[in-house]
Write the structure tokens for this entry.
Amino acid sequence: MIHRLVAFAPVIFASISLLTPPAAQAEDVKLPPTMTFTAYDTGTAGFNIAVAVGKMMKDKYSTDVRVLPAGNDVARLAPLRAGRAMSSAMGSGTYFAQEGVFEFGTREWGPQALQLVLSTVDCNAGSLGVARDTGVTEIKHLKGKRVGFVVGSPALNQNALAILAFGDLKQSDVKAIEFSSYGAMWKGLLNNDVDAAFATTITGPAKEAETSPRGLIWPPLPHNDKAGWDRVQKVGSFFFRHVATCGAGISKEKPIELGNYPYPIFVVYGSQPADQVYAVTKAMITGYDAYKDGAPGAGGLAADRQTKKWVVPVHPGAVKALKEAGQWNDDQEAHNNALFKRQSVLAAAWADYGKSNPPSDDKEFLAGWLKARAAALGKANMPNGFEE
């Protein structure tokens, strides 16, 4: 994939503070003269938010931030792993990379010690949008219906399977219709080629579907349904309960109990220096007012809106900045340390698997690794996270 540098569009922003002079705050944060972030394709929420953050860093710290668009998780992480990028704006692929599954179960990758800087959760949610003309009102009603899947996009597909699990359904319980891309899948819903597709509630295609002849609904995932939520998190442990108040057919007056996970998630590698990560995190925290309105969803990056005790640890440099902002506690510290231990278990299992003369065939290699991974996690009394 060819990466290209993208110039920043003008962003209107507010002043950071009238009480603390910018120069004084700048002394606390030392950023390099240039930085590179990677993100999803141009125009996506992750890309736009990264651009807004970069605009703040340019205006406040004279740091030039380049945002490289990339169409999948591997392409986003490759520059970061090679040391050519400072951070990547990721999604649920962050968790897949940590766990060494799907496209990260290949011999070229394996478990990645990714750690969080800041992430955003806003008023939207991520779930299965269903054509209203199907008559479906609950997830369990999707049995036998046509559900969209995207070839080569495990993140989207795993998300769909997690939502289906709420209704005690598996892929074999629905008619899986494969599409070449996310956009094609949603066009398929408009064209009556499929009945349900995964998306964030604020995505453009969902709004288009809502106003189409078919209409669109988001079957709720009631938060008091413990059994349903246990099934969701068994398939996609990165999901959590979330009340959606914005999106296609959703408002503050018409909220829906659904699920969500952070997106975008600004990640770094655990090997990156703590002082470097601290400086970037603190800049994002203190400069929040300058970019919060720069792109839809950017407001969710506020220090006091960070997802607590998620499935990927927070980098020690970011922890320092969050502590200074008063947004860290002992429970979060204990949870974070347990996740560091999980990354160590996965790294050791990968190293041992590599020494075991694994199969040369790619499919057999992945199958063998997933068995070794499951065994190592089981021995450490840690959940697999990807059970059927």
